[in-house]
Amino acid sequence: MKARTKTTAAKEDGKPALVPKLRFPEFRESDGWNSDELGKVADFVNEKVPVERVALASYVSTENILPDYGGVTRASKLPTAGSVTQYRPNDTLVSNIRPYLKKVWVADKEGGASNDVIVIRAKHRLLPKYFSCLLKNDAFIDYVMTGAKGVKMPRGDIGSMKEYPTLYPSTPEQQKIAECLSSVDDLIAAQARKLDALKTHKKGLMQQLFPREGETQPRLRFPEFHNAGEWDMTRLGRLGELVSGLTYSPDDVRESGLLVLRSSNVQQGEIALDDCVYVDPSIKGANLSQPNDILICVRNGSKALIGKCALIPEGMPLCTHGAFMTVFRAKTPSFVFQLFQSDKYQKQVAGDLGATINSINGGQLLKYEFFVPKPPEQQRIAACLTALDDLITAQTQKLEVLKTHKKALMQQLFPSPEEVEA
């Protein structure tokens, strides 16, 4: 894609200048924005440094850049040999494996990046903070994906990336936009920290409310159960029953009808209905799901999804579940659902998977063992943890609202790349 530069209020052909839908008052009468190919306004860094000169804390790979523009975590290890790309503060690092994950990070230090991470550095026409807003942007990610190569592990094409139409106003307007979006980023980061703190609190609380390995009662009990004695070891099969899933073919799929719940509908312990498949309600072999059933993924191409579960809420549309899923219909569903969040459950799932197996057997699942208290204590624990789950859900929704607000704001503050002439 080739781009022309537009620097006046109207282009030479008399068409309107390139301007955003939303502009700060002091710039509303300013000239139109400029457009250049990314490769002309930024350098794709290729400075190499031996890996032995890079500290673990400053090494960045596709593994430790967080998705959805979420920053970075500490790398788990360094490469054993070779060289990496040197990055500097204010460089923008883009993971070039599966670009749709939106793994983009703006460096706040100096370090080294793996060969699958592209390091891009703004030239003098662009302020670094403004430049990072251009690349931490769904419009840029969508463009990269149009030129990506590969199906299972798509990679962005650097040649195509260098042709990305990069839009920019005057330096003062760049500064204003960067300050505005940085303030929204600060709100998102603060909300994300609050959410992480709640999740950490719940994890720590569960480690106290459920017995540890080798123990028969928890370290923390509600006052009314201090003298209730040890918990009893029991198999999952004594706490409920499994309901098998539906095997269906593409010919069975309809635009509406009986909802089929799949692994994509299990998101962070809840049922999400943004990726739905429907079949004819009269299809044979469908076991209707009920409120408070626990939907469990028992087979998937990704091992990380196996064992993940969600509690089917009240008010769900008529639904069943796919053959790669199962439903556990528990006698005390809210407590059993919390058992499925425990370390004990996770370890038993991991033990079943092994090195190559990408599924867990229903019969084996029913043999999973847990220490459980009497029903009144089960209900008390479940009520406490469910309330915390509700709080986590509310804070997650606030975070998503902020992210949606920023996305809409960026669509208004930047002209659309589609306006640039081919």
The CATH architecture category of the largest domain equals: Alpha-Beta Complex
Number of domains: 3
Please give the count of helices.
9
Overall shape: globular
Name the structural class.
alpha+beta
pLDDT < 50 stretches: 1-9
Please compute the radius of gyration using only Cα atoms: 26 Å
Largest sheet: 4 strands, antiparallel
Separation of the first and last Cα atoms: 6 Å
Helicity level: 25-40%
Q: Beta fraction of the residues?
A: 15-25%
Biggest sheet: strand arrangement: 2-9-6-7
Number of strands: 22
State the CATH topology of the largest domain: Adenine-n6-DNA-methyltransferase TaqI, Chain A, domain 2
Global mean pLDDT = 91
Name of the CATH homologous superfamily of the largest domain: DNA methylase specificity domains
What's the CATH C level of the largest domain? Alpha Beta
